[in-house]
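Hey L., structure's done. Input below.
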Amino acid sequence: MDNTLTKNSPLKLNQKRTYIIGLAFFGILLMWQVYDSYVSSFLSELFQKTFQASSAEDVQYLVGVMMALDNVAALVLMPIFGRLSDKTNTKIGKRMPFILIGTFVCAVLFPFIPVAFHHSNLVALIILVAMTVLFAMMYRSPAVALMPDLTPKPLRSKANGIINICGYVGGAVPTILGMFLVLSNYLGKTKPGSAQQGNIWVIEIPFLLASVLMVITALILFFAIKENKVKEEIKDELRRGEELSEVENVAQDDNAVLTKENKKSLLIILAAEFMWFMADNGISTFMTNYTLYHLQASTGSNSINTIISGLCSVIGFAIGGFIAARIGRKWTMAIGLGLTAGSYAVWVLLSMLIAPNGSFPVYIFAIFAVKGFGMALVHGNSFPMVVEFCPSGQIGRFTGYYYTSSMLAQSITPIALGALMLIPGFGFAQLPVYALCCMVLSFLAFFFVKGLKPKKENIKTGIEALGESDD
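Output:
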């Protein structure tokens, strides 16, 4: 096959390779979906028992601190591992050593978290969570950086959409299983202590399944993608992608620094990212407890809600790259943030008009469907937009910037919400209000981003792209 590109040759996404790279993100979201769904409730129950608190809300500041500590570790470690992987050169590539080591250690540790909970061992639970998070951070930045390493700049939104779809499929696996095995038997019961008297396998299966699938996907990725070989084969495409960058005045030197205008725009994007993760992580961290303690409803319904949101996210990821190719990533993301802010505003209004009655409100399903689609437009384009500013030799470093912003938000928001709940009159009922305020600020920030040039890239799309095989 002739890999030579002429100046006007259209770029075409290698979908097969992109889906295989997406297996890394499959494993990441698979683990974090299980983690986010259950660990906060494990901590709530054990803190409440240990400190003999009268209600779950009395210990939410402790839960918030614990849920934030893993993000503080990520805030420090992910930029370090991203930068280290930039400077790493091995026979199996820059990113692959970090992916393999981090995945395998996480897979060993992760299933012991519900064992510690089952035996009411708070200290063991905290230690296991800390160690699991440490090694998860080791592979996350390098795994995410692998996509832009092997994808030309104009194709990264489409590639990121595929990778996010893989991730959401990974997240759906434990969610669906949990709906039938875990949530119906443990989290669906509002009284603390029920799980500790039950069958440990009811809470163990999702964690064990996550570990097994993480190992399998890492092995497939390793044997299917020869990182160094692929990068050499597509070097002309990567060079052409640099020339078609959506950002003006991007330096090609691997050690170059940003222009003043590009640095300002990047900082605004990272600030907007910080705010939407403040909203998003606040919802994901406390939605289980919102359902249990405010709505007084079964969280089995919340699992259905998660699945609906995930399906709508898949639609957003599938079309987000094509929208960005027409109107630019900036406005595609602004549309997604606007849709999400609008859905939260409806949530706030309806929650004021309709009092909790012990059942999961149907309107939340619709709200999360819109939110899922809107945030897919955002997440599908945000990471490609950040790494659009950097030359190829600094992808790991800029991946670190992206995760510094998101992890800083995820470090702050659980503590902030937990602290707010100590204020009289502020409880789980105000969760959507908090999310709305953060999302509106994120949306407004995008009107100050400059120096981006929305244009149609010379790439293959639609029937043209599907009509040829991925070589």
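The domain at 15-455 is CATH 1.20.1250.20 (Growth Hormone; Chain: A;). The chain has a mean pLDDT of 80.

-- N.
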